[in-house]
Task: inverse folding
């Protein structure tokens, strides 16, 4: 693998900060090498140096520019990742919404960095298997991601054996997945609740519904503090009063923005928007 | 915690042994279902059994059925670890009494996630 020079690393880091507000600090050279070397080959360029050379041109090819941003976006995900937030959903957060919204019978949930869809489909499985009353509700589960590649995969709802091995309980797998060749496809009935849209959290947001619960886990850590503040403020405005935000275990709103109250539920912390 | 690894492939037993030992489990091994029942009959009751499907003498599904039929072994957590990846096979294994199912080949973190969801490892985030 080509080693990235200090100058090139700084250039890529600046490029990413400008294009996506994603911040990669010193010591992350390996990330640039491991993500962009395969991309260079895929595009038909000789190596990483050639790819960075393309980016340095006065008017770089927009498709190459976008693919670099996508390749540098972390897509690590699994079904029911970390378990605890889903347990909090089952025991507390969803029952609260069902009580609060009983009149309008509407439930809106957003997975703000949905990657290939495991988080959103996990939410759908949790709702379907635990809350039969929602069958008569207007349920919208929205997944957004920066990367059009991963969104295309999320929409298809197709997962490899390696992916369904990660975090998906076997009873859920046989209940909600069909085998299709070497892959497993999410049941159409479950997918009717799920929509996926391209969205860059660090840029202007489209008009969004008002959500009852927002998952924004393990994505803020890639942004610098001012961008985190902007995103958390905007998320707060999309949440209904009394709605909850779920962050990654290493993330918090405390000391970053106001307007959220941390609520411990079992082994997780949810951030409640006050009424 | 004690894990019983049941697989006719010595290489697979070694791989699983390395991973679960690293997770803090004491490890027992057997080359097929009957050998595993013999290990248990000799007084070594595991907390969890990791079970291949296709093995000589007694296959994994027969082992699962035998474990669930015996009141003394019914509480042992049973996880299939197999190349059998058809949905119908997974349904059969669960109906026979397996608690979880891991498809080979698998990554180490997939095995860890299954052990976490079975309550055999604390969930680390």
Result:
């Amino acid at each position: 693998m080509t080693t990235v020079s200090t100058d090139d690393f700084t250039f890529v880091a600046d490029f990413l900060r400008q294009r996506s507000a994603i911040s990669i600090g010193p010591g992350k050279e390996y990330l640039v090498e491991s993500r962009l070397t395969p991309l260079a080959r895929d595009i038909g360029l000789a190596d990483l140096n050639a790819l960075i050379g393309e980016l340095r041109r006065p008017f770089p090819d927009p498709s190459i520019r976008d693919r670099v941003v996508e390749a540098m976006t972390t897509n690590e995900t699994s079904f029911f990742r970390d378990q605890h937030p889903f347990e909090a959903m089952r025991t507390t957060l969803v029952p609260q919404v069902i009580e609060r919204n009983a009149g309008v019978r509407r439930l809106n949930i957003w997975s703000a960095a949905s990657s290939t869809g495991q988080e959103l489909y996990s939410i759908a499985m949790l709702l379907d298997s635990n809350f039969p009353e929602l069958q008569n509700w207007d349920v919208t589960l929205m997944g957004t991601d920066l990367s059009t590649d991963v969104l295309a995969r999320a929409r298809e709802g197709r997962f490899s054996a390696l992916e369904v091995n990660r975090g998906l309980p076997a009873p859920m797998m046989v209940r909600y997945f069909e085998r299709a060749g070497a892959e497993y496809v999410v049941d159409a009935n479950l997918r009717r609740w799920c929509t996926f849209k391209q969205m860059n959290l660090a840029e202007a947001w489209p008009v969004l519904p008002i959500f009852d619960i927002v998952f924004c886990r393990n994505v803020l850590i890639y942004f610098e503090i001012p961008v985190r503040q902007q995103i958390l403020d905007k998320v707060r405005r999309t949440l209904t009063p009394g709605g909850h935000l779920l962050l990654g275990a290493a993330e918090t709103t405390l000391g970053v923005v106001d307007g959220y109250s941390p609520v411990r539920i079992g082994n997780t912390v949810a951030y409640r928007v006050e009424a | 915690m004690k894990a019983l690894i049941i697989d006719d492939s010595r290489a697979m037993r070694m791989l699983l042994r390395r991973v679960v030992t690293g997770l803090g489990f004491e490890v027992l091994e057997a080359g097929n279902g009957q050998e595993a029942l013999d290990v248990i009959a000799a007084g070594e009751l595991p907390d969890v059994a990791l079970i291949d499907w296709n093995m000589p003498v007694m296959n994994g599904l027969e082992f699962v059925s035998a474990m669930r039929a015996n009141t003394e072994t019914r509480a042992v957590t049973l996880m299939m670890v197999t190349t059998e990846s058809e949905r119908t096979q997974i349904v059969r294994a669960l109906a026979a009494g397996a608690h979880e199912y891991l498809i080979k080949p698998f990554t180490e973190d997939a095995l860890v996630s299954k052990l976490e969801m079975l309550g055999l490892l604390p969930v680390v985030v």
